[in-house]
Prior knowledge:
By secondary structure, the protein is of the alpha+beta class. It is 26% helix and 23% strand.
Amino acid sequence: MNEIATAPILADKTDFIPKEDYISREFARREKERMWPRVWLVACREEELTEPGKFVTFDIADESIIVTRDGAGALRAFFNVCPHRGRRLTKGCGLTAKFYCNYHGWQWNLDGSNKVMIDGGDWTGIGPDDVGLRPVRLDTWGGFVFVNIDGQAQPLLDFLHPWPEMWESFRLQDMRYRWFKTTRLNCNWKVALEAFLEGYHAQTTHRQVNPACGENRWECRTFGRHSMFYDANPESVGAPNPNLQYLPELGAEAFTGIDDRRERIYRYLKTVAGDLNCLFTDRMVEAARRLPERVPADCDDATLMGAFMTLHLEIAKRDGVDLSHLPLEDFGALGTDWNMFPNLAILPTLDGLLIYRARPDGDDPDSCLFDIFPLERFAPGLAPRVVREFYDDWRDGAFPRIFVQDFENVDEVQRGMKSSAFPGSLSNPRAEKVVWNLHREIREMILG
Length: 448
Ligand code: FES
Ligand SMILES: [Fe+2]
């Protein structure tokens, strides 16, 4: 306990984050006791629970929760533990008619009521009614299934504010999985998540963007526990990064001799789309490729951006994806990347969405489970059938290049932070405010 009490206090203006937040067992224990049970957590998507008996298990810290649809069609969540002697009942996801314990054979219906208590007559004073699966509070929004472990959190929509208002016209509920990969990482869940909560690292870690990413100016907005960042200078896309002189080159040859800004934007988006395999959709890349159909090379920024958006919307419509519900001002206000408190990073494009989720792995502050699950807008009936993939080691997971570049940082951050020479992070007061805000909120919950 002392190690946290003696750490420097996260004062409002310092932007300093004590390293104990990441490496201390005591800090992780307090998160487990005082934060994870008290928040709303995304367990899965509704699209995974389309019929009775479909289930997903959601593991976080030392808890495991089963989310399922019962015979009457209602969504349900239960602690994934046998009331007899504590065996975990199931793992992964699938389709089942009942839940079953492999140890002594007790069984439960999809609504959590006990179905079979083998030799139940041996007990006096305890019967099937006493050994139902313990329910977990559940709610849905935007196609996400949320759980609240202690059942005491404020109502979901209040907890999510301002998500329900700001994201309403985006219609998250219309989106479906593009793919789903989970890997174990040898770092704290926050080290992993924060690699995806700021744009400041992109020019160095993902230096292939530099020939044409423009002069990004990352600015943050905080909304209490949730926060986001955006590029305050998006019109510069297509131009070289002015910091290029300080950064090693990667992929510059694709832009050599290309002065036409429309072509530079197209090559840039194509590169990033290939390196993500999501978010920058095929439609978005096609819109960039076809810019010369609509605007001359020397047109002004606003005309170029307007033509790009219009083309993207037209291509989506051609593909059976109607975006008339989404005013462009609403979309613009969503910026680049959000932290849905506590453990999600979410990036939108018009018809794509990239979601990262980080979860502590048991009570080890040096290990986490990290999910990447992009969504996309598909024409009716065209969403792919996505099977969740799990990798103990990300090197086995065929992750696209951008994720590999990020993963290469996170283990080294966790190791580096343990040095006696490192007291904590000096987060960038402008570009890394989202990271700082996450710690401010966690500290308020667990130390307050
Ligand atoms: S531990 Fe589950 S039936 Fe015994
Ligand atoms: Fe990154």
